[in-house]
Amino acid sequence: MTGLAEGTLPLPQLLQAMSAEIEAMACRLRHYEDAVLTLAAHSETRPPRELQDIDRATQTAADLALALRVVSSEVPPDIMVPTQPLEQGLKLADLRACLLAPGYAGTYRAGQPGQVEVF
User: Fold this and answer.
1) Mean per-residue pLDDT for 40-69?
2) How far apart (Å, rounded) are the C-alpha atoms in residues 19 and 91?
């Protein structure tokens, strides 16, 4: 699950994984926005103004994903980061596992049904 030295991960790999997760978040936001617009189209009420906030968050996430992708390609591959702070600090187990996994490509894929966690 970790990089060359036990408890470490190459920084470019981590940045790429973060980029993929942020892009997945942007996809989820687009999906939510589309769902609200679809509901609003079948309603007499106007779409909520917060849709602009969702759109802004979607664009921000997409830009951050791009920035991380670009930076990850510029960082020397031998720079290692410790994984323990991430392992201990990240609250979402699936995010933690994916960010620390080699070849991570994001947890959300458009068109795939997701699971709803009730809490």
Assistant:
1) 87
2) 18
